[in-house]
Amino acid sequence: MNPRLTQRIAFAILLICTLIVIVPVLLIVAMIIKNGAGAISWEFLTTMPRAGMKEGGIFPAIVGTLYLVFGAVLFALPLGVFASVYLTEYARDNYFTRLVKLAIVNLAGVPSVIYGLFGLGLFVTFLHFGTSIISGSLTLGIMILPVIITASREALDSVPRSFREVSLSLGGSKWQTIKRVVIPNALPGILTGTVLGVSRAAGETAPILFTVAAFYLPRLPNSPFDQVMALPYHLYVLSTQVPNVKSSITYGTALVLITIVLLMNLFAIIIRSRFRRRKRW
Predict the structure, then answer these.
(1) Structural domain count, the chain
(2) CA atoms lying within 13 Å on the CB side of residue 101
(3) CB-count burial class (<10 Å; 0-12, 13-18, 19+) for 253
(4) What is the CATH classification number for the domain harbouring 234?
(5) pLDDT tens sequence across 75-129
(6) What is the spatial distance between Cα 159 and Cα 183, in angstroms, rounded to a whole number?
(7) Is residue 229 part of a domain?
(8) What is the model's pTM?
(9) Distances from the Cα of 63 to the Cα of 4, 76, 205, 230, 259, angstroms
(10) Can you list the alpha helix ranges (DSSP code H) found in 204-230?
């Protein structure tokens, strides 16, 4: 067969596969924008819900989602980076470390409801944090931790070995080499893992259902040990538990959640691009 014809056939198959993935996503987003754009207003974004969530806004749910995502990243990002540094730079390649790496990869695929039950048992019941922001944030942090560790390990492994050798030959210690050479060059990949983690944490319902989410709480939290409303659970409640709610409110809530996730991703992508432009390799 003609190589050019084979190449065109392969490109066509890849294009079809790409369209199969992209088109349904675009249709879903277009449907949400069409049905929810009419509900978006300053009042909808900045006021408390009223009349059993059939009127008013979703401001407490927006604030609660931001608190939970920020808390999860604050816990998971440094812990995940330090764990990946240890596994990549310090740990010996033996049976135990291979088992730990396999466990981390497997944890990334555990259903979110399992993390919710784990958070309920550990943080809510055993540590007596109650259903609170801190319980929900720690649960979400543990859930996204395997993703951050896996991405950070790959980013650290991608830094050329010669960078480490040059730093050590100039008199730098191992930790100085990691802090000033390895981690700065691996930051784009680390931020990629953080973006994936943020996207998952912002959209999960099951973990916060057991640990933090309130059905109806038209006020802002006063401390990390308070319950909050959150957009994923609020959307679930509007769709299944509140009768006679306007569909525009439901779609508007979904649109706000998607927008927040996209803005978080965009912010991380911009930071990642700036670090990537500084690379010399």
Answers:
(1) 1
(2) 18
(3) buried
(4) 1.10.3720.10
(5) 999 999 999 999 998 888 888 888 988 889 888 888 889 999 999 999 999 999 9
(6) 9
(7) yes
(8) 0.87
(9) 55, 20, 16, 8, 14
(10) 206-211
What is the domain range of residue 148?
Answer: 57-277
**Under 8 Å CB-to-CB from 145, ≥6 apart: which residues?**
76, 79, 80, 83, 107, 197
> What is the Cα 155 distance to its own chain's centre?
18
The token pair at 43 is 């009042």
Which residues are paired to 4 by β-bridges?
none
Report yes or no: 136 and 213 within 8 Å, Cβ to Cβ: yes
| Per-residue pLDDT tens digits for 248-260 | 888 999 999 999 8
Tell me the sheet residues that pair with 213: 228
**Residue 12 identity (one-letter amino acid):** A
Query: How far is Cα 238 from Cα 119, in angstroms, rounded to an integer?
Result: 25
